[in-house]
Amino acid sequence: MHAAQSASPRRSAASSTRPAFDGAAIPLPPACRVRLDCGNDHALYCLSVKHLASITGVPEQTPAGSGVPEAGPPHAGDEAAFLSTVGRQLREVRERRGMARKVLSQAAGVSERYLAQVEAGEGNASILVLRSIAGALGISLAELVGERDGSVERRLIRRFLERLPVHRLEDVVFRLMRDFGQEEASRRRRIALVGLRGAGKTTLGTALARELGVPFVELDREIEREAGISLSEVFLLYGQVGYRRIERRCLDRIIRAHEQMVMTVGGGIVSEPETYNALLVNCFTIWVKASPDEHMARVVAQGDLRPMQGNAEAMEDLKRILAAREPLYRKADAIVDTSGERPEDSLPRLRLAAMA
Question: Are 60 and 53 in contact (CB under 8 A)?
Answer without folding.
Answer: yes
